[in-house]
Each structure stands twice: as C-alpha cells, then as structure tokens.
C-alpha cells in the first residue's frame, strides 16, 4: 500500500485499515518506525471528507513544529493552532493544540469540539506522567462518544489494557497495533577511560577485574567525569565515523559547558558558510536584543564549528535555529537535555548518555526503561545507517551492573494512571452534567479500571470532599454554581486563589501593578539555585494589605512571600529592555520568557472568565504591556 510516496509497513497498514473501519487505534511502535505517517493518513482522509481533526501534543514547541509542517502540507487556510501562547485560525478543519487546551475545551463543553471526528494524541504515554497525566486521561473521558482516537507512543507494554479501557468507557472498537522491530537496530554500548567504547559484557568483566586501589579509582573517576570523558568519547566517535551524535545531559548548564569545551572543527568550509548564512538570516528576523545575549554569542561560535546545544532554558528562536541546522546535517555533535527527544523526529547515527542517572527533583536515580528508550531511540537514521549506536558513559566504581542490564533489555514499564480531580474539574462536572452523568464519569477513569472498585470509591470520595470545600468557600450552593463558581470553572491555574482574588470585591481594589505582582506569585515555579537582585519593593506590601481580609489569600501570601519577583515583573511592565531584565536574575532567558508567557496565559483566563468590565480593562492593559518584543511568540 502506498501513501504520500511511501510504501507502508505492516503495522502502518494495520493502523490505516482500522481507521477506515471507523475504529480508534492505539499504536505502540519503536521510535523511528514511522508512526507520524499514520497521523498524516488520518488528517488526509478526514480533511478530504470535510471533517474536523484535532492533533494534540504534550509541549508547545512540538505544537508549533506540527503547525508549520501541516501548513506546508495542507495549506494555511486548512490549519489552525491553539496553545496558551497563540490562537491562529481556531475554526480550521485541522487544529493543532496542546492536550491541556483540548481538555479545557471539553470541560466547558466548547461547541467547536462537537464537530470533531478524530483526535490524534501524540506521545500518549504522558498519561503516566505524575504532574500532567490526569490531563490526558480527562481528555479521553470527556471526549464525546462520536470522536475516534489515534493514540501514538514509542512503547506501551500494556497497550491492550489501555485500549480495553477506552472500549469500556466509549463503547466502540479500539484496535491495538504493535511494532517492536526498529528499521535501524540499536547497538547498546558503554564508555570508560580504560576500555574506550565497549560492549556490556566487557564492561562487566572490567568491573570485576578492576585493578586500581579504591581511593585512586575514586579520584580517577572524578577526573574522568568532569574533564575528559566526553572529549575522549567524541574523539573516538569521530575517528570511527560514528557522528553525527546527540549527547544527552541531564543538566542545562552541562550542555553548554560540554559544547564549548570542544575545540575541533567538524565542518567543511562549505558547511561552515552555510551555517553562518543561516544564522544571519534567522537572527535578522528577530528582536535585535537577542543577538546581543551572551548565550546567542556562545551558540553562534559553537555552531560555526558544527557543535550545538539545546535545552528548555534557551529562547524559542535559538532552539528553532539549532533544530533547523541539525535537520540540515550541519550539526555533528549536539549536546541536549531530554526535551529534544519529545516528538521531534531528528535522529542521529549515535546517541550518547553523559550519565544513566538523573536528578528528579528529590534525589538522583537511574533512568526508567521508558526514559532510556525514549532518548536511545533517536540513534540510527533510516535509509542512512545499518545500526544506531547508543553509548553511555559509566564510572565502573559506582555503576550497578544489574540495573544497567535491566535498563537496556527492553521497555517493560506499563502505563499507570495518575488520575486526580482538580477543583476546576469538579466545578465543571457540577455545571455541565446531571447526577447520573457525574456518577458514570467518576467511574470512568483509567485509575478505576486498573485498580478496581475500591479505587472508584476513592475517586467519588475525592469528588465529595472537593464539592464540600467549594460549598464552604461560596463557589457552590445546593450543587449549583454561584457567580464565583462560574468564574472559577474557566480558570485552570490555581483556580481557588484566582477566584478569591478576582471573583470578589478584592478585584476592584487592586491596581494593575498589584495584579501583575500577584499573578507572578501564582505562576512562579521554584527551582534550586536561582538568584534575584535585591531591589526596593513598592507594590507587594499594599497587595498583602488589600488581601488581608481573605483567609485563603492571607495564608497563601504568608507562606509564599515572593517579593523578589516584583522587580522582575515591574521591569518588564514598565517597558524596559530584555537584556537589562536578565541582570535582575540568574533565571535563563528561555525560563524568563516562559514566566511571562504563563503570566499572560493566566491573565487571558481571567479576562475570559470575568464579567467585571473594570477588571477586564485592567487585564487587557496588562496583556498589551507584557506581550511584546522577545516575550511575544513568533510563528
């Protein structure tokens, strides 16, 4: 079978046959096998039939990439995008959106969803994510029964269980398509300073025969790790023609340090000229301030030698630049954090791991098999490489051979539900559904399906607990939403705190300066090691004074005194430039932009939820002040 000039593989044919039958499909296929071609088939088929399709993704960057791809493939008039940042052509027949936006539309029963025939869930394994998994689950639970799903993931060991759950709650056939074989097989290898690149068997033998005294080994390992290991490894890769390579590090700063530590030239004169020209073209179309950033200058110098770095702390335009040059084949060594492996189809001949351990916010732990294979799967380019190399740097003194062996064997980690009810979900359940419908929905979670009747009781108890709390706080009376509850059902970030501040008389007391300072408090995400310049505070004290009569807000402000955010928020509010803003904090450029994008997103939610015209005027004024220059997204 042919589609878009490709001869479809067995699993792709199985998937399109299921789609043609009107079934939903769960596709569990190794990275690089061509899952996205199935999504293209869905879009092509339903677009020609005059039907509406939605394509959800876990991150905004992937949504933006898909928007660009689909515009090119299907025409600008046929494609729209909806994220917290942008809304373009939202009534188009093909809409790319983050999973959060899709779920929010479902919760409020947005009329647009009633016309949708098919929804593509890219990276469906995010349903198991502790922080965000409930969003994916609710997206399936609240979807109308006429909608069919295409669920894509690299590996889902319990795919049939997942499909059975969808069949159980949606009452239509769900086919499972599995492809474990990669078109380019992976060769898992390891690197230490004694043996160089070696197989796992050699590594184990090396560990057993290690002849260095313990203290000398410790010191030697430390030196290898900090100074020599990646340089020696990449030199060996270059000698053995195993580049281009993606070198994964679990630290943003390490990606930059390791990239700048390489001094070799990896490009021909012709390639170097192409890179310089492409950088110039890209940056002349952006805010001039970006060209003056230290990060931009560092990146330009590295790219000119065929070396790049990529992490979430970079400005979006710089990440795009790296992705484009990598796609052109003129980045030979790319140091990246794991975000580079989410959805972006950019393989290399070799994937390297700086370590098989990562810090998860609490402690250091080994990667899970799913995490390992998500990244390792980028090794091996279809049609170019006979094998993809996956090479992990290890310290023989400290590595656990049994864990490593378990890690590289296969991804056997099943998807486990992380379902939990938010106050926002409870408000929308009360507003949009009858008691009978609510009962069915509360019994429909994958959490309940996996864990049985006792867990269903726990979900119902959670609903009742939250309903009573909402009643006590004046959001609900006799299962009906009050005006405050109607406001809060449109808020998806800290809905109770936002409701207390902006659906009460407090909203009329707050100045625009106090509003932006408070919103900054709400969206800020704590991170280790961040520093902020100590500057005079003007608006926080009056903000705290005005919310003093509200117990919830007073408790929040006492527990989250974040006065250090005020200078940052006010600097941008007062229309100062981006470069001088960076002098106020050690937060990376990309995180600063994300911080202000989150402020804008919450301001828009408030604007949509309120019927207070005076508040709406303040909010619109703030959005116009903040959504500018580097912070404004470019598509």
Can you characterise this structure?
The protein has 635 residues and is of the alpha/beta class. It starts with a strand and ends in a 9-residue tail after the last helix. The protein contains 29 helices and 21 strands. Strand 17 (357-359) and strand 18 form a beta hairpin. The strands form 5 sheets. It has an 8-stranded mixed β-sheet, with helices on both faces. Strands 12-11-19-16-13-15-14 form a 7-stranded mixed β-sheet, sandwiched between helices. It has a two-stranded antiparallel ribbon with strand order 1-2. Helix 1 packs parallel to helix 2 (36-48).
Q: Can you give me a brief rundown of this structure?
A:
The protein contains 29 helices and 21 strands.
Keywords, separated by commas or semicolons:
635 residues; alpha/beta; Rossmann fold; Sec63 N-terminal domain-like fold; 7-stranded mixed β-sheet; 29 helices; 14% strand
Strand order of the largest sheet: 6-5-7-4-8-9-3-10
* Count of the domains: 3
Biggest pleated-sheet summary: 8 strands, mixed
The strand count comes to 21
Let me know the CATH homologous superfamily of the largest domain: P-loop containing nucleotide triphosphate hydrolases
CATH topology of the largest domain: Rossmann fold
Low-confidence stretches: 211-218, 220-227
What is the class of the largest domain in the CATH system? Answer: Alpha Beta
Question: How confident is the prediction overall: mean pLDDT?
Answer: 91
- The class by helix and strand makeup works out as alpha/beta
Instruction: Compute the number of helices.
Output: 29
Percentage of residues in strands: 5-15%
Task: From the alpha carbons, calculate the radius of gyration and give it in angstroms.
Answer: 26 Å
Instruction: Estimate the helix proportion, in percent.
Output: 40-55%
State the distance separating the first and last CA atoms. Answer: 35 Å
- CATH architecture label name of the largest domain: 3-Layer(aba) Sandwich
Overall, the morphology is globular
């Amino acid at each position: 079978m042919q589609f878009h000039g490709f001869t479809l593989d067995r699993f792709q044919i199985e998937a399109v046959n299921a789609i043609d039958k009107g079934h939903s499909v769960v596709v569990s296929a190794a990275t690089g096998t061509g899952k996205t071609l199935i999504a293209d088939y869905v879009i092509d088929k339903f677009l020609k039939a005059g039907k509406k399709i939605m394509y959800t993704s876990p991150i905004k960057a992937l949504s933006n990439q898909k928007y660009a791809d689909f515009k090119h493939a299907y025409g600008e008039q046929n494609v729209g995008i909806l994220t917290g940042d942008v809304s373009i052509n939202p009534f188009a027949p093909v809409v790319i959106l983050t999973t959060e936006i899709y779920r929010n539309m479902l919760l409020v029963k947005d009329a647009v969803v009633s016309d949708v025939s098919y929804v593509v869930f890219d990276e469906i394994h995010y349903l198991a994510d502790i922080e965000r998994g409930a969003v994916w689950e609710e997206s399936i639970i609240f979807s109308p029964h006429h909608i069919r799903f295409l669920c894509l993931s690299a590996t889902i060991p319990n795919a049939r269980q997942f499909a059975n759950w969808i069949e159980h709650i949606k009452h239509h056939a769900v086919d499972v398509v599995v492809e474990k074989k990669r078109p380019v097989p992976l060769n898992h290898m390891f690197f230490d300073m004694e043996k160089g690149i070696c197989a796992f068997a050699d590594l184990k033998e090396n560990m057993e025969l290690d002849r260095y005294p313990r203290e000398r080994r410790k010191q030697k390992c430390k030196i290898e790790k900090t100074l020599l290991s990646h340089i020696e490894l990449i030199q060996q890769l270059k000698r053995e023609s195993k580049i281009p390579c993606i070198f994964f590090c679990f630290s943003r700063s390490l990606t930059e340090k390791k990239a700048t530590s390489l001094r070799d030239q990896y490009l021909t004169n012709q390639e170097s000229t192409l890179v310089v020209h492409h950088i110039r073209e890209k940056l002349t179309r952006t805010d001039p301030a970006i060209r003056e950033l230290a990060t931009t200058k560092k990146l330009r110098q590295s790219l000119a030698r065929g070396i790049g770095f990529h992490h979430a702390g970079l400005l979006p335009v710089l990440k795009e630049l790296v992705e484009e040059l990598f796609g052109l084949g003129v980045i030979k060594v790319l140091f990246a954090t794991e975000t580079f492996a989410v959805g972006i189809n950019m393989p290399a001949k070799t994937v390297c791991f700086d370590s098989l351990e990562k810090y998860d916010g609490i402690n250091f732990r080994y990667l899970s098999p799913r995490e390992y294979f998500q990244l390792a799967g980028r090794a091996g380019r279809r049609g170019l490489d006979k094998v993809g190399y996956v090479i992990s740097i290890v310290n023989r003194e400290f590595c656990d051979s049994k864990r490593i062996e378990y890690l590289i064997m296969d991804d056997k980690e099943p998807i486990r539900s992380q379902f939990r009810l938010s106050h926002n979900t409870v408000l929308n359940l009360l507003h949009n559904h009858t008691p009978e419908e609510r009962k069915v929905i509360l019994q429909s979670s994958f959490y309940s399906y996996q864990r049985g009747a006792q867990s269903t009781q726990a979900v119902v108890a959670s609903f009742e607990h939250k309903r009573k709390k909402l009643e006590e706080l004046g959001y609900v009376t006799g299962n009906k939403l009050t005006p405050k509850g109607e406001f809060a059902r449109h808020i998806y970030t800290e809905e109770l705190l936002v409701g207390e501040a902006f659906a009460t008389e407090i909203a009329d007391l707050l100045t625009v300066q106090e509003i932006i300072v408070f919103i900054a408090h709400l969206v800020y995400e704590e991170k280790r090691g961040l520093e902020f310049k100590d500057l005079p505070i003007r608006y926080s004290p009056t903000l705290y004074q005005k919310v003093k009569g509200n117990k919830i807000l007073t408790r929040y402000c006492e527990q989250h005194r974040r006065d250090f955010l005020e200078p940052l928020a006010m600097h941008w509010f007062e229309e100062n430039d981006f470069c001088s803003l960076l002098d106020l904090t050690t937060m990376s450029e990309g995180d600063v932009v994300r911080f202000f994008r989150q402020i804008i997103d919450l301001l828009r939610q408030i604007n949509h939820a309120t019927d207070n015209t005076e508040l709406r005027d303040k909010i619109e004024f703030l959005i116009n002040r903040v959504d500018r220059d580097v912070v404004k997204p470019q598509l």
